[in-house]
Design brief:
It is built from ten helices and eleven strands. Strands 3, 4, 5, 6, 9, 10 and 11 form a seven-stranded mixed sheet that branches. It has a two-stranded antiparallel ribbon with strand order 1-2. A two-stranded parallel sheet has the order 7-8. Strand 7, helix 8 and strand 8 form a beta-alpha-beta unit. The longest helix is centred in the first third of the chain and has 27 residues. It is globular, with a radius of gyration of 22 Å. Keywords: DNA-binding, Transcription, Transcription regulation. This is LysR family transcriptional regulator. InterPro entries: LysR_HTH_N, LysR_subst-bd, WH-like_DNA-bd_sf, WH_DNA-bd_sf. Pfam families: HTH_1, LysR_substrate.
């Protein structure tokens, strides 16, 4: 319903470079540049100018983007109204989320959509939080579950609707026989001097663990890097260190002990649901969110 070249301009604005926008859109950089030139010629104004080795959006481009965001939001509301009045909505609907969400929360939501809307093609995409917002912007996903981190778009970003969904508490995982293994609860201060196993620098998990430790007054002594819970748990089982694991994450049968953390507030990762602006009222989004909430209440019952 809207010129797709406006989406290209949005992605260039979001990423700051043609190359990054092309990667997010699965285009070549030359295809992105060509579409920008086409749009500029049609509008009769410059949209980007060279700035050193990169590019900079012009004031005209900012004006176009402001109106494009309003148009996209209105289109999302139109799709939502059309779906609400249809006897049996069709088309496609894509859910995306980080690894634990894609394992524990999204499959039940996809199953609920398949049951309620059999003519809709439902798709699940596992992706890191920052990538999820790319998928929303490009139209490749319609609902995203993300972990709230500092590098996400702010809640005031008018391109998206973001709502807090749940808090997923962090548990400490130690090897059997560890000095704290018999405790019913521990604090992070109790393990400040331990060797830690965390995700690779730049990953959401890495940020999560460092933020939790820093809030407890120390910087973790990182001994090993592991992005997968099973890898980290295996290292713990062999006495290479300790890890923090979200309660939603399942652990395999390693000789380890999982201990809840105490604190005010207790360390947790905050999970958000995000859609494009205007998209949260779509019946499929509402059905998916209801299923996700029900699943989360089952997996994380209130204390």
């Amino acid at each position: 319903m809207i010129d797709p070249r406006l989406k290209v301009l949005q992605m260039v604005s979001h990423h700051g470079t043609v190359t990054a926008a092309a990667a997010a859109l699965n285009y070549t950089p030359s295809a992105v540049s060509y579409q920008l030139r086409q749009l500029a010629d049609e509008l009769g104004t410059e949209l980007v100018i060279q700035s050193g080795r990169g590019i900079k959006l012009t004031a005209a481009a900012r004006t176009v983007l402001r109106h494009a965001e309003l148009l996209h939001a209105q289109v999302e509301r139109a799709y939502a109204e059309l779906a609400a009045t249809a006897e049996q909505p069709s088309g496609s609907f894509a859910l995306c989320g980080f690894s634990t969400a894609a394992t524990r929360l999204l499959p039940p939501a996809a199953a609920a959509l398949r049951e309620h809307y059999p003519q809709v093609q439902v798709r699940v995409i596992e992706a890191e939080p920052a990538r999820c917002f790319d998928l929303l912007l490009s139209g490749d996903a319609d609902l995203a579950l993300v972990i709230n981190t500092a590098d996400l778009p702010p809640s005031a970003d008018e391109r998206f609707e973001q709502q807090q969904l749940l808090d997923d508490p962090l548990d400490l995982v130690v090897p059997v026989g560890h000095r704290l293994a018999e405790r019913s609860r521990v604090s992070l201060a109790d393990v400040a001097d331990e060797q830690w196993i965390v995700g690779r620098p730049g990953s959401t998990y890495h940020q999560l663990v460092r933020a939790a430790c820093m809030s407890a007054g120390f910087s973790p002594n990182v001994a090993h890097y592991a992005d997968e819970w099973d890898t980290g748990t295996a290292l713990v089982a062999h006495h290479f260190g300790i890890i923090l694991v979200p309660r939603l994450a399942r652990l395999h049968d390693w000789p380890v002990v999982r201990i809840p953390l105490r604190g005010e507030p207790a360390p947790a990762r905050r999970i958000l649901a995000a859609t494009r602006l205007g998209g949260s009222s779509h019946p499929l989004a509402e059905t998916a969110l209801a299923a996700i909430t029900t699943t989360a209440q089952t997996l994380l019952p209130a204390p």
